[in-house]
Amino acid sequence: MPPSPPAVRLPARPQPPPLRTCRDWCSINIRLIKCFFGFLFIPFDCSLCLHLKNHCNCCGLWIIMINEVQWLCLEIYRECPPKAPQREMPKGDARFPANTAGGLAHTSYLKKGSSLSVNRASDIIQSPDGTFSFGFYNLSSTVFTICIWFTTSADRTIAWSANRNHPVYGSGSEVRLNKDGTMVLTDYDGTVVWQTNTSSKGADYAELMDSENLVMKNQGGNILWQSFDHPTDTLLPTQPVTASTKLVSTDPSHPSSYYTLRFDDRYILSLAYDGPDISNLYWSNPDFSSWLNYRISYNGSRRGVLDNLGQFTASDNTSFVSADWGPGIKRRLTLDYDGDLRLYSLNDSDGSWSVSWMAFSAL
């Protein structure tokens, strides 16, 4: 009897390579077939029984679970980063309309109990006309401040900052409008870096106005706190400088400098150097009397404001006008790091700034 032929060992069915990312999954050559379950996307040329399990959190594709290689899909599901949770938007409340300026849906409000996270770049609120944005602003890859900036300026120029002297870490930090009505900025470890003093005032929401003013209001719409009362180095149109407020310049090597714009003891709006060892007024001309400087000392109030046309007037008779005086131009009055006070106008076509007035022609 002839010997039996050696057993033929069939080669094992080749297994598809493991998929590590949803991009790999998306690049597979798939085909559409019809079975009694309906239309299904089938990877490779597999005739195994398939069933629909879930969709990928990363890209939204349907994931097909193959009986003998289920781990492939599980690898994808486990390693694809989940989509960032969408911040809950107010619904059915006429006080909180969505802002679609620039084609993207943003809100101009932060409701009580809501927060903005440094981990989500989309976590910003925008003024209704889209001119200003409020959120975390990156000074570097790991250092952030909570700021209001010009949305359309080429360098996202900062108009106001809550914590320029105490930046926070680029992961885990958040600003939250607490249930007690206080807006609180916390660092990655929970340390409170900045907060508003509104816990007993019944603040219900925060709103970013077209003027750049960030205001906190109660349910009746009354303003309980506003960023206009706490300027940094910049004044915006309609934002006053008063007896209790001042501008402090920003030094490139340090967030705050010693140059200030404030009302002095004679109620005259002045530029001053307030250093640790010396304080000195340098504008208007300190060698002239207030009369020679065309100023009125000890006037009844201490208030100065830039209007929407580009003219600045103050109670001490300080007055100057932008070179491009007129409506429809976005402007800012900034005390720069060199101690000069400059009025800037924004070019809408390219987002650049031009100087339209300055206290000193050269420094």
UniProtKB/TrEMBL annotation:
<keyword id="KW-0732">Signal</keyword>
<dbReference type="Pfam" id="PF01453">
    <property type="entry name" value="B_lectin"/>
</dbReference>
<keyword id="KW-0812">Transmembrane</keyword>
<protein>
    <recommendedName>
        <fullName>non-specific serine/threonine protein kinase</fullName>
        <ecNumber>2.7.11.1</ecNumber>
    </recommendedName>
</protein>
<keyword id="KW-1133">Transmembrane helix</keyword>
<keyword id="KW-0675">Receptor</keyword>
<dbReference type="GO" id="GO:0051707">
    <property type="term" value="P:response to other organism"/>
</dbReference>
<feature type="domain" description="Bulb-type lectin">
    <location>
        <begin position="107"/>
        <end position="229"/>
    </location>
</feature>
<dbReference type="GO" id="GO:0004674">
    <property type="term" value="F:protein serine/threonine kinase activity"/>
</dbReference>
<dbReference type="InterPro" id="IPR036426">
    <property type="entry name" value="Bulb-type_lectin_dom_sf"/>
</dbReference>
<dbReference type="InterPro" id="IPR001480">
    <property type="entry name" value="Bulb-type_lectin_dom"/>
</dbReference>
<keyword id="KW-0472">Membrane</keyword>
<dbReference type="GO" id="GO:0016020">
    <property type="term" value="C:membrane"/>
</dbReference>
